[in-house]
Amino acid sequence: MALLTRLSEAYIEAGCDEVGRGCLCGPVVAAAVILKEGFQSDIINDSKKLSAKQRAELDLFIRENALDYAITELPAEYIDKHNILNASIEAMHRSLDKLHTRPELILVDGNRFHPYHFIPHRCIVKGDSKLMSIACASILAKNYRDNLMIQLHEEFPQYGWNKNMGYPTKTHREALKKYGATPYHRKSFRLDYNDE
């Protein structure tokens, strides 16, 4: 099914999405994207449905062809202090703060959001597979976070972050049992897998 380019013709729309909510370590990353009129792509989709090569190519395409975009990361310490839902929404708010173009309608992937500067918002479940601007935000956020986790893997290669990106795979859980948590791990998440 083709993605909708816009929800409304009347407003400047910013699509927002985040990545990394279910990870045990690393930041949560959010992006906000405003598309130019006439922006079109037959390949853009939910970032999870694309290969790493496709995401990398589309990341460049979006950066070059969007009207405006911004990306924000919030570290594990922030997540531990404010919880992952609030950190995800705050990362989206900070991305919106960075935009040079002020949106008139905010489109959010998922079902939760906090009001932002009296600008109307719509939460759309699975929005990254329905609306182009949200899908673009999901691609920018995922590409940014994956590249970051590949860099962090160089520092702590035993956890397999270059493949699992910080999600609780068997390799990651086994490494936590053997080596314990790193400074990048979220202390508020379950990290003790010794009782399995």
UniProtKB/TrEMBL annotation:
Catalysed reactions, semicolon-separated: Endonucleolytic cleavage to 5'-phosphomonoester
Cofactor(s) needed: Mg(2+); Mn(2+)
Enzyme Commission (EC) number: 3.1.26.4
HAMAP family listed in its UniProt record: RNase_HII_B
UniProt enzyme class: hydrolase
Function: Endonuclease that specifically degrades the RNA of RNA-DNA hybrids.
PANTHER family: RIBONUCLEASE H2 SUBUNIT A (PTHR10954), RIBONUCLEASE HII (PTHR10954:SF18)
Keywords on record: Cytoplasm, Endonuclease, Hydrolase, Manganese, Metal-binding, Nuclease
Subcellular location, principal: cytoplasm
Cofactor annotation comment: Manganese or magnesium. Binds 1 divalent metal ion per monomer in the absence of substrate. May bind a second metal ion after substrate binding.
GO biological process, one term: mismatch repair
InterPro entries given in the database record: RNase_HII, RNase_HII/HIII, RNase_HII/HIII_dom, RNaseH-like_sf, RNaseH_sf
Gene3D superfamilies: Ribonuclease H-like superfamily/Ribonuclease H (3.30.420.10)
Protein name per its UniProtKB record: Ribonuclease HII
Ligand binding (a divalent metal cation): 17-18, 109
Keyword Hydrolase belongs to the record: yes
GO CC entries: cytoplasm; ribonuclease H2 complex
GO terms for MF: manganese ion binding; RNA binding; RNA-DNA hybrid ribonuclease activity
Subcellular location: Cytoplasm
Pfam families for this protein: RNase_HII (PF01351)
Similarity remark: Belongs to the RNase HII family.
